[in-house]
Each structure stands twice: as structure tokens, then as C-alpha cells.
Predict the 3D structure of the following.
Amino acid sequence: MSACRFPVVLWLFLLVGGTQSGVAQQNFGVVQGRLAETTRQVAVTGRLMPQKVGTGIAFTVPVSVNGSKQTWWVVDTGAPLCMIDPSFSQKLGLQADDKVGRFPITMINDFETGTFHCSGIACKVQSIDVIKSAALRNESGAFEKTGMVGVNLLSKYGALINCRTQQIFLSPSGNLGMSREKYEQMGFTYVPMNVTSKNRLEVTGTLDGKEFSFYLDTGAYSTLLDDSIRNEVQLPFLQTNVQTKAPFANMSKFARYSYGFATDFKLGNYDAKGARLGSTMLNWTEAGSSHRFAGFIGMDFLYYRSAIIDIGGRALYLKPSSTPK
């Protein structure tokens, strides 16, 4: 048994057969996902070698809607609602209400991810073309992508998301009940997490000693600060010529991607010094955070820190970074 797998097996033992008891520990679903990647060319200004390959990581899970064959949905904690591609929705003959917002909403009562059955799931009908180019990482096989799993489903079933092993644990009771102490015994650092009124997963942290709110966004390939925050905390950065595109948010057409490495960055008591932080013009105006909004914590940060996002328990657990040099 490899060393990297031992904590996962131990964690499952503690959850299923450890000292805790109760319905939540005996009645839950395990969804095994798959890791996908996208690549892009990044030109860094002022460099002799301008072209550089950037890699984005996406976490996907198998989903069946109304008995359909399984397709793959991106797990997106930055999405308040689940999302289904219009072509797939039309293929299934789903009815949608187009009078509730900017995009039509369809209700799905036969939604199965892995072998866990969900009901009463609201899905926004919106194109997901921008994520269809993601390809499986070190795997082969069919990989049709038709939707995104949002916080409304994850919160309803108290999802516990293991970003490193690409697993989601879901409970009909809405809380799996794993204790903070057991995670800390396994080497994780606890970070308090809040679900805002807008269905955002919020954690509080500091940059250069200043306190901010950050949203956990497993649908974001990169961690992103707003340019104004980057400038305020005087984060050294490299500017690229890449336009930042966020099809599911109102991103300025003038937004350009830059990045730097944090010298003073914490989430709760977790020291994230050295983390790579992207930045752009986020143009974010949504209310609901407990502190001034600074940016999104993306899959790059979460994956390499073996993040466990316990939505039912309102907690984020992180290990020291294993980012390859």
C-alpha cells in the first residue's frame, strides 16, 4: 500500500467503522470522479521565451438524468445552482421555466451521481461549451460532458469533497458527521467555512495581514484575486497577455491574467505562504460575504493541498502543499 493512499483508507475506516456511530455514518453514498485537464498557451510580457503551457484541473463525476446513460459533470462549488447544457436538456425532453431569471430553470427529480440518488434538483439551462475541451488526465474512454454540479445539490446532501482523490461523499441526512479532531490527527489543518445566503462557500483569510473573504471554487482552474486586492497588498506579479474569460460570470473584456507568489497569505490558521495567486479584473459586486471579497480559491490550490471540503460540517481541511516544482 502506498503512503499517499494510507490517509484515504484510514479516513474511510474512521468514517464507516470507527468510534462514531449513528445513521449519518451508516447511510451515505460514495461517488468516484475523474480528473480532467485543459492546457493553454500563456505569453508572459518581458520574457525572451514568451510561450508557456498552462494547465487547468477539473474534477468531474458521472451523472445520470431520468435514467439516461452516464455523462460527466464538472463539480463546481463556485456555482450556486447546478447547470445542464441546453442540447442535453433538449435531448432528454426536460421542461424549463424561463420566467425565473436570466436563464431557464429545470427541476430534476431523477438525478443520480455514481449510485447516489438525488431528487428535487434545480438546474440552470446554460451552455457549458467552454469546459467541453477538458480531457481525461492519464486515462482513456468516453468523456461526454453535459453539466455542472452546483452548491444547491452539494449543500442539500452535506457533500464531503476530497479534491485529491476525486471522491464525493453524500448523505441523505445532510451531514456525514466526521469530527475535526480526526482530521487533525491525520495532518490536516482546519479552516472554518460558511455557506452564504447566495450559496457561496466562504472562508476567511489574510493577505499581508489584512482580512478578506475568499470563495472556494472547484470549477475555477486557477486561484484568482481581484487586481485591486493584488495592488493593495503589493503582491509582486508577472503580467501576461491572456484575456481572462469567465463565461459563468460577468468578466470585463479588458481583463488580463497576471500571477505572483504569496509572501504572506493565510486561510484561517493555515499558512499558504508561497501559493501561486493569479489576478484579474473580477468585476465582482455580489453582496453576502462577511468580509471584503478578495477572490476565488481554485482547483490548483485545493488539489495540491489535498483539500477536503466538508459542506455539511462547514469546514475546509488542508495539508501542506505538494505542488511540483
User: Anything to note?
Assistant: The chain has two domains: 28-178, 183-318.
